[in-house]
Amino acid sequence: MKPFTPPFCASPTCSHHFPDGGAPYSRFIAWGSYLTQAFGRVPRFRCAACGATFSRQTFSPDYYSKRVLDYEEIVGRLCSCESLSAIARALGASTDTISNRVSRASRQALAFDSGQASTRHPEEDLAADGFESFCVSQYFPNNITVLVGARSQFVYACDHATLRRKGRMTQAQRARREVLDSVARPDPRGIEKSFARTAGESLRVLSDGARPRLRLWTDENQAYPRAIRASPCLAAQIGLGRLRHLTISSRAARTRCNPLFPVNYLDRELRKDLREHVRETVCFGRNVNRQMERLSVYLWWHNFRKVHRAREGSRSHAEVAGYDQGRIEKGLRSMWQRRAWLSLTELTESMLDSWLRGRWTPLRCGEDYLPRFARA
Ligand SMILES: [Zn+2]
Predict the structure, then answer these.
(1) What mean pLDDT is predicted for residues 144-148?
(2) In sequence order, which residues have a C-beta less than 8 Å from that of residue 243 and are 6 or more positions away?
(3) Nearest to 151 by CA among 122, 130, 129
(4) Could you state, in order of their start, the residue ranges of all structural domains in the chain?
(5) Which one, of 156, 258, 168, 278, lies nearest residue 217 by Cα?
(6) Is there a smaller number of Cβ atoms within 10 Å at the N or the C end of the chain?
(7) How far, in Å, from the CA of 40 to the mean position of ligand 1?
(8) Mean residue pLDDT across the chain
(9) Neighbours of ion ligand 1 (CB under 5 A)
């Protein structure tokens, strides 16, 4: 086996941290080693340019972890409707350890998604809609807006908004909601803002493809046109005729011919593949950021690993959406070998919130913990 050499300096403030036109990083010197139970002897290095020290583990997705677990297996089980507890039992680990690996996997997935998007050529219309689930308790339903390719069912973007509980309630439930409103009232314009962020990605889809125009289908929710009017970029593209916003009733038959088929299809997949979104489950999400980490992992799996149509060949949703097959295969081979770095990854606003755990969880005090290395 070839001895490990650091691919770049681990300090984001050093000029040798960023790729130098393909020239391999050589300004480092060996700086001893240390022994670990999980990873054997780990070599250390020192950057000759800035003096930062780092080790082989600094570049591993398992940085700071004390046990090696198979990411492929954890992700496969998570995306096959197994709860965190069930995965933990099967692998002989604690639920916290599995949750920790899912967080790490989510950052790998976001970086993978971002890296692949730079060479895509999407040539399809889009559909957007909100997937309804909940987090913390049924008093805090949420709306996860997804932007899906009409032909490929590739998910281009997603965002999360916590909502106020609505619908039929008993008097006691209504009183309980009043109490919760006083301590944790969700943003009444949550759906609108979330839709604007998600629909904004349709402009990138438009610019990455060669089509002069793109259609964006939604249902007749009044928050959507309001969000479009409030977004100067979206409104400008609609004014130019490059983007058309079309609506159809959400009561229309949910067939393959329905323009909202892509979002209806994803709705079904999420309900059956992710344990926390199964109706009446007791394994519901307790933390919004963790929920979005699991969703990021799931969407990576859906987009790049899952076959588009089980009876029609082996192409993934990403390949049908115009992503480069060779590049996907190359990326998948090294997916769990190199740690994803925030400083080297281009993320949308929503992806950044998922990476940095920046979303609000109702009834939770303070920010969610994120290891310092995940911010580098
Ligand atoms: Zn350096």
Answers:
(1) 97
(2) 202, 203, 206, 213, 214, 215, 216, 234, 237
(3) 122
(4) 15-59, 71-375
(5) 258
(6) N
(7) 25
(8) 95
(9) 9, 11, 14, 16, 47, 49-50, 52
